DNA sequence: AAGTCGGGGCG
DNA sequence: CGCCCAGACTT
């Protein structure tokens, strides 16, 4: 039996029940695909349910404020997805009268929609035979055909896209695309793949060579950089604190945080106390400084390890506009900040 | 082509 | 601890 038929047969028996598999509404498919970028189903599922409940249509999403969308996205990471999601919803409503693009090529024009997502939506919603290539597809195909080309280089990207495009079931691209991803996610897994009970056991080249876990081949990524973050947690006598909206291009864009002082290396109490005497929020006012966590909290991201200290700054009155500590939960904050807020009793 | 962007989970 | 995840975008 040919690859695509065997795969779709496997899928019909083994697929998980998931809410976005109960619809072909492009708004819901688009929403699920954005949420699931670089995100496992288990992690993304509750966010999908929350977004569908909060924004049942693209019009509801377009009418929301960005800070509200970011708040609902809080904790999921890669926050540009949420900003692009919101911007694209506005574009669909305002420029396209609420009608989603219906072709791979047109879908690519939406912010946050690249080759993978455009292929997924076009195939699932409109039966366009455009092959998806995600992390699962790289793994399944590199093993089945024993392909050593690194999957994360430009050569590999082209090669695997072309191969998937040759394999896709022209009559049922929607099922094929979802099947190959589901197979990678649940059977042909990175560790301990279920080769013993695999329908491709007799034709998988990696299995024949006993090298299944040598695939896919990848170019090593750079090691994470170390940074030292010091957050100033102001507390005034009247129960206010200061949070700021992150600007610029870096991490956590448009999320909120306590005023941040980044240092080149870890600082002790005396060094830091002297350093922030000149801070614009502390100039010429009395304050009491105490360190919340004597041992730095290490927050690990893909490209940065953040060694973090939270400094409690007691003042009589704030030197800038503040918020009541009771209102802090209304703001979208990074997980690092959210964990502190939960652990620290503000009252 | 290489960096950047999060956070959770697994062995 | 390193690697992976229904990738996209910038430099």
From TrEMBL:
The keyword Protease does not apply. The keyword 4Fe-4S applies. Its cofactor is [4Fe-4S] cluster. It catalyses: Hydrolyzes free adenine bases from 7,8-dihydro-8-oxoguanine:adenine mismatched double-stranded DNA, leaving an apurinic site. Its EC number is 3.2.2.31. Belongs to the Nth/MutY family. Adenine glycosylase active on G-A mispairs. MutY also corrects error-prone DNA synthesis past GO lesions which are due to the oxidatively damaged form of guanine: 7,8-dihydro-8-oxoguanine (8-oxo-dGTP). This is Adenine DNA glycosylase. It comes from Allotamlana fucoidanivorans.
């Amino acid at each position: 039996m040919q690859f695509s038929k065997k795969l779709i047969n496997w899928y019909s028996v083994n697929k998980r029940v998931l809410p976005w598999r109960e619809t072909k509404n492009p708004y819901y498919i688009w929403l699920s695909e954005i949420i699931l970028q670089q995100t496992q189903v288990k992690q993304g599922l509750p966010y999908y349910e929350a977004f569908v409940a909060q924004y049942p249509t693209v019009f509801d999403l377009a009418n929301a404020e960005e800070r509200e969308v970011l708040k609902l996205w809080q904790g999921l990471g890669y926050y540009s997805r949420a900003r692009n999601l919101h911007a694209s919803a506005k574009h669909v409503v305002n420029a396209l009268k609420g009608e989603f693009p219906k072709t791979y090529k047109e879908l690519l024009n939406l912010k946050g929609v690249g080759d993978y997502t455009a292929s997924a939506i076009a195939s699932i919603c409109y039966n366009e035979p455009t092959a998806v290539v995600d992390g699962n597809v790289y793994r399944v195909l590199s093993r089945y055909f024993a392909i050593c080309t690194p999957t994360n280089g430009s050569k590999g990207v082209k090669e695997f896209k072309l191969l998937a495009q040759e394999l896709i079931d022209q009559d049922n691209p929607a099922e094929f695309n979802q099947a190959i991803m589901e197979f990678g996610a649940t059977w042909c897994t990175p560790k301990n793949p279920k080769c013993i009970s695999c329908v491709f056991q007799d034709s998988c080249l990696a299995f024949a060579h006993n090298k299944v876990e040598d695939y896919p081949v990848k170019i090593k990524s750079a090691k994470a950089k170390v940074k030292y973050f010091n957050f100033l947690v102001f507390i005034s006598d009247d129960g206010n604190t200061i949070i700021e909206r992150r600007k610029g291009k870096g991490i956590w864009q448009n999320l909120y945080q306590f005023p941040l002082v980044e240092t080149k290396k870890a600082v002790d109490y005396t060094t830091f106390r002297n350093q922030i005497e000149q801070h614009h929020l502390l100039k010429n006012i009395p304050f009491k400084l105490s360190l919340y966590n004597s041992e730095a909290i290490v927050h690990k991201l893909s490209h940065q390890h953040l060694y973090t200290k939270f400094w409690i700054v007691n003042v009589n009155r704030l030197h800038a506009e503040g918020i009541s500590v009771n209102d802090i939960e209304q703001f979208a904050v990074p997980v690092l900040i959210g964990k502190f807020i939960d652990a620290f009793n503000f009252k």
